[in-house]
Specification:
The protein is built from 14 helices and eight strands. The chain is α+β, with helices and mostly antiparallel strands and about 375 residues long. It starts with 18 loop residues before the first strand and ends in an 8-residue tail after the last strand.
């Protein structure tokens, strides 16, 4: 029997961000996502984001997998107003459907005024929809199922599209969330698909830079503001993008996405070979960083140009205190011999050791 998904112990807190890194791959690692598929997946993601009340902070849609950095806030105390509910429903339902629910609510409110029904009758209408809101599992279930149905119909196929149960990692706000956002946005650079993360259309950064003042471009900028500033109390508000956030994030991507030659042990274990890590052209990054008046953090940059298992398999990522807190609040998930939670990063993640910690001690392929 598989374990229930690990959710943040403070998932119902109104004051503390609940952030997850989510990853799912196409079955057999097949490159199933062309331009049309990526556009449709993004459309569904944004549509269900608007319905659910969850916030996409960062994302990347590749040819056979996707990453989403998602904040899942609790439902507001007292629930949604009728107006808020109808606005949420308009994200996924037709005008005719929403108009029908609006009429049903109006009639129910009138019956309450007349003393023919109580408030529970109105709440019952709300609950038909709100149980799917502010919920990680519901967000992912609907997104993956709806995309699968569309993809199968388009390609005359049946069955599952996804390799396995999606992965989720609990991420602390602050440096962990910021680093995770950059790791996600640098995926196409690491894969050699683009020379600059701004040039890839299906990432939060590409959308933030290429989108307009309204719509998804604005939403992408708002998400990145939240990823970089949630620990300082900033909401997901795009107005802060040009108040230091855009510059800070651009420098982070340049520092951590620059190409690099490094020594790698050959498979035989006998020789050291030079391997060029794909990334932003060194001279381009250096020139722009000089203009932005900041040096490069080579160690962190080297780490984020590699595949680092902690980002997908670490289960919990953050400061040492953050990981220890989650461990103590989830003690039942571990055996009696486990005395503490935080584990240092190894291998490709070594550059973050002492800054970021994981609850899992990964030893292979990290």
């Amino acid at each position: 029997m598989r374990k229930a998904r690990w959710l943040a112990p403070w998932k119902d807190s109104i004051d503390r961000p609940v952030i997850y890194h989510l990853l799912s791959r196409v079955v057999d690692r097949k490159c199933a996502f062309g331009e049309a598929e990526r556009e449709h997946f993004r459309m569904l993601m944004r549509m269900y984001e608007n319905f659910s009340g969850c916030q996409v902070l960062s994302y990347c849609i590749m040819s056979n997998h996707f990453h989403i950095l998602l904040e899942v806030p609790p439902m507001a105390e007292g629930g949604l107003t009728d107006t808020e509910l109808l606005k949420r429903l308009s994200a996924t339902g037709s005008e005719v459907f929403v108009a029908g629910i609006a009429k049903e609510l109006a009639e129910a409110r009138e019956r309450v005024v007349q003393g023919l029904a109580d408030e529970a009758h109105v709440q019952g209408i709300h609950e038909r929809f709100t149980y799917r809101m502010h919920d990680l599992s519901e967000f992912m279930k609907v997104l993956l199922q709806r995309f699968t149905r569309w993809y199968n119909s388009k390609n005359d196929r049946t069955g599952t599209l996804w390799e396995e149960r999606y992965k989720s990692v609990i991420v602390e706000d602050g440096i962990a969330a910021k680093t995770m956002a950059a790791y996600i946005d640098l995926n196409p650079v690491r894969a050699g698909m683009v020379a600059d993360p701004a040039d890839y259309r299906w990432t939060s950064y590409g959308e933030a830079m290429g989108g307009g003042a309204k719509g998804n471009g604005k939403k992408a900028r708002a998400g990145l503001v939240r990823a970089l500033r949630a620990h300082k109390g900033y909401g997901a508000d795009a107005q802060y993008w040009n108040q230091g956030v855009a510059k800070e994030y651009r420098m982070l991507l340049l520092e951590e996405g620059v190409e690099q030659l490094e020594e790698v042990v050959s498979e035989s274990g006998e020789d050291q070979v030079k391997v060029k890590r794909k990334g932003i052209k060194r001279e381009v990054a250096a020139a722009e960083l000089e203009q932005l008046e900041r040096g490069k953090n080579v160690a962190m940059g080297k780490m984020l140009r590699c595949r680092v298992r902690y980002f997908t398999d670490g289960a919990v990522i953050g400061s040492r205190g953050f990981v220890e807190e989650v461990f103590q609040k989830s003690r039942e998930r571990f055996g009696p011999k486990r005395k503490d939670g935080a584990r240092k990063w190894r291998g490709n993640g070594e550059a973050a050791a002492g800054v970021l910690w994981s609850i899992r001690d990964l030893r292979k392929g990290v």
